Amino acid sequence: MLELGQTFYLFVVYATVWILGFFAWAVLSERRR
Amino acid sequence: MFDIGTEFYIVIGLYFLVVVGIGLWSGRKNRGSEDFLVAGRSIGPVVGGAAFAATQMSAGTFVGTFGIHYLTGASFLWIWAGLWMGWLISATLVGPKLQAFRGQTVPDYVATRFNSQTARGISALLLVVAYTVYLTAQYQAGGNVFQTMFGVPLIWGALIILGITLIYTMVGGMRATAYSDFVQAIIMAGVFFAALPLLFGKAGGAEFVGDFLTELDPNLTGWSMSFVELAGFGAAFGLSIAVAPYELARMYTLRDRRTVKLAIGVAFVFQAIIGISVAAAAMAVHTMYPFIPNPDIASTVMSVDVLPPVVGALFIVAILAAIMSTISGIMIVSASAISHDFYSTMIRPQASDREKLMVNRVAVLLLAILPISLTLQEFDLVQFIVLLQASLTASFFFAAVVIGLNWRRGTAAGAIASMVGGFTAAVAWYFADNPFGLDPVIPGVLVSLVLFVGISLVTKPAPEAALKPFFREDHEVGQRNDRAGRRMEGGTTG
Lengths: 33, 494
Description:
heterodimer; A: mainly alpha; 82% helix; B: mainly alpha; Sodium/glucose cotransporter; 2 domains; 0% strand
């Protein structure tokens, strides 16, 4: 992935963090209710 | 026409059999119109999330977006960040509330929240017109795939796609749409697990691809598009998807509010796999074929000339799957506007459930067949609606849905003004040649927001009964506070 350039690699990292963060929010926000 | 083997016909034939089978299975499970329109509110997070992703992606993802990555490299990936902001609006402000409302159509929400059958009629009419015409673009895309691959006339390809999609949608309704979307999303994402290693193996490895493209043009692995360009595209996509009626209608099919949030998370996973894979595959194809004159055929070149026949055929099936999932989602939303919002609610409220189910099926059939003649025409109005469908529906619905669900003071007059005003602003912006390079959805949404708030503040608030389904928490919190207040009063005075 890193071989395809910084722009590509940065997006892969961004997508991973976004998805993990979203699931964490989805689960915690419902548990709090 | 490409030289293709028997494997292509077998794989495509098997795929058609699977989706028709899903339609027949779903049809046996459908007991009434609620089953037909909202799948009995039984869809879980994995199938629901896959359906969100599959409906959103169309031929554009596998042909147009592939071509843009072929032409400009990696940076176009970042439009997903804008699109995901739209999904975040949906997950926080829209989806859970719509699911809890338990309606059947998007105009159902508009009519109940604003206590106005006029608002229902206007929104249902827009959906029928915009979506029916938009189907022509999907038929054309399907016809193009068949024409390019097999050399059959465009209309025959369009009819094959329409016929198969019509069978499973008309028989199985929303349940068939959701489960076939699930299969289609698995195909769309899964094909890359087979294709990418083969592609990069043939292209000389990821390191070679990166080095070659950087040597050819450093922007291909850097930033071909500026931040402003990407933000503009991303905002347009994000605003459109946050209130896209074919996605909003899916909220009603999900089991509960927790499922809504998890399903959107699952949709992110599918979108990330497909989006990143499309970019990587296009970059590999660029390395092997640096000078394809028309970037739109880059993905077809890959599937026929580079990949082994079975994997290539699966990629073509993925394109067909993307087209068919969009057609099916649109068919059911526009047909439900006819059958549920006009017929069952306004014309014959006394209709039996059996009659409503039949009207649903007839509406799907009619609205699927109607755009066929348009597919062969080059009417300016058709081209205009196809091009602007997402911008127009978002400009129309954004304020009424996003603000209407979260601001008690929003009124029917504000909603109608925002729908008509936002739509008109988007059309005017388009005919003014999109000043400042902004997509019409941005001024359209801004105008709809201003009109919604402004007109609502000077008109009479909606009655409490209309607000209750959407502000249940406020209502319950209010009741709890009232009870606590009464207890305290009782304690201090008694």
